[in-house]
Amino acid sequence: MGRVNQFDVSWGAPRPERADAARNRQHLIATAREMIAELGQERLTMDALAERSGLGKGTVFRRFGTRAGIFQALLDDGERAFQEQVLSGPPPLGPGAPPLDRLISYGQARVRFLVEHQEIARAALDGRQPIPSGSQSPLSQAHIRMLLGQIDLGPADLDLLAIQLTAALDGPLLLYVSATDLNRAPDQVERRLLPGWHDLVRRICRP
Amino acid sequence: MGRVNQFDVSWGAPRPERADAARNRQHLIATAREMIAELGQERLTMDALAERSGLGKGTVFRRFGTRAGIFQALLDDGERAFQEQVLSGPPPLGPGAPPLDRLISYGQARVRFLVEHQEIARAALDGRQPIPSGSQSPLSQAHIRMLLGQIDLGPADLDLLAIQLTAALDGPLLLYVSATDLNRAPDQVERRLLPGWHDLVRRICRP
DNA sequence: AGCATAACCGGACTTTACCCCGCTTACGTA
DNA sequence: TACGTAAGCGGGGTAAAGTCCGGTTATGCT
C-alpha cells in the first residue's frame, strides 16, 4: 500500500499518491484476488482484470508495470502483514527470545507463508526482467541478516550468508518442490521442510 | 541432445529421434546461440528464430514447447559438458579427492558456470509453468546429494540438504545479485561468492 | 520394393502482454 | 474560487507467444 508506482523502490514516498490512484490500486488488488480465487493465476489476464474493475487497460499497466508486477504487489501486501507479526509479535517469533530461536521460528513461519501463497509467489517470478524482479523478498533477507548480526558467528560475510539462507529457505518451495506435492499434501511438505530448516540453521550457527 | 521432445522427461529414450528432427534441433540450437550473441536474449523471438532457421514456427514450438524451453535446452547442453568435467575430470573436481574438497570445488565451478551463462539461465525461468520448469538443475542437485552421502554428517535429511545447498548456490546468482553488478564486474562477484560458498559448506559439514 | 502409419512440417490463426497518446482530473498557488 | 499543470486515465494498436490442422516424409513390415 505504500508504494507510489512500480518505479518507486525507495521507502520514503517522494510524493503522496493521488486519491483516485490509491482507490484504483486498492480496487485492482481486491479484484485480482477475487479472480485468482475463482479462476487460478494462469487465467488472470490483464484485459479481464481491467474490464472487471471497470478501468482501462492502460491504468492497470501504469499501476503494476507488468503482469508479474501484479503478483509482486499481492505478495508484498501479504508479506507486509506477515512482517508485522515478526517485528512486534510475541516471542519466539517477535523480539524477546534469543536470536537463534527467532531465526528458527522465522524460517518456519516463512515456510508456512510461502506454502500458503505458493501460487502467487510463482507467478511473481519473471524470467524476462534483467534484474531480480523487484529484488525478491528483501524484507525476509533483511530480517535474517539482522538476526545473524546478533549471533556470534566469528568472521563471516554476514550479508552473503543472509542471501544464501534466504535462498535455501525460499528455493526449495519456489523451484524444487513439485507443485503436485504441494497441492496434494501441503502438510507433508511442511513436516519435511520445517525440521530441515531447523537442522540447517543449527549446523550453520553452532560454534 | 538426448531428449526427444519437451514431454520426454525420462532418460532412456523410448524411441530414437527421427533424422530430420535431430538435424533441425541442432540447427535451431546453433541459430539461437548466434542470435543471442548478436541481439541478447530478450530480443530472441520465436518468429525470428524460425525464419532465420528456414523452418516453420510450428516446428520450433514442437521442439521446445515454449520460449523458456529453448533456454532450458541451451542450458542443458552446456550443463552436460560441464557435468562431464565433474564426473570424470581431474581432482579435486573429479573423483579421487576427499568428498568435502570435491563439494567445495564443485560449488566454485558451478558459480563460474552460472556467471558465464547468466543471461540464458535467467531466461530459462518461467513463472507461468506450474511445475518448476523441468525441475531446475537436477544434475547439480544430484551431484551434491552424492557427495553429501560420502561425508559423515550424522542423522540428516540428505535429500533436502542437497536441495537447500543447490538453492543457496544458484539463488544468489539467479535471484539476488543484481544483473548490473554481474555485467560490470563478474570478477568481483566471483571473489565474493567463491569464499562464501567455501565458508557455508565448512560450517555445515564440520563435526 | 510397396504400403500403412506415425511422426513431422509449416504457416495461418488466436490470444494476450504491453505501448502510445490525446483527453480528463486532482491539487498547489494566487 | 479560478487557473495552470502535472499526474492520471482509457482504449485502440502492435508484436510476440502459443495452437491447429491439412499436407508431407520417414520408418517398420511384408
TrEMBL record, chains A, B:
The keyword Transmembrane helix does not apply. Residues 45-64 bind DNA. Residues 22-82 form the HTH tetR-type domain. The keyword GTP-binding does not apply. Keywords: DNA-binding. It holds the Pfam family TetR_N. GO terms for molecular function: DNA-binding transcription factor activity; transcription cis-regulatory region binding. PANTHER family: HTH-TYPE TRANSCRIPTIONAL REGULATOR RUTR, POSSIBLE TRANSCRIPTIONAL REGULATORY PROTEIN (PROBABLY TETR-FAMILY). This is TetR family transcriptional regulator. The lineage of its organism: Bacteria, Bacillati, Actinomycetota, Actinomycetes, Streptosporangiales.
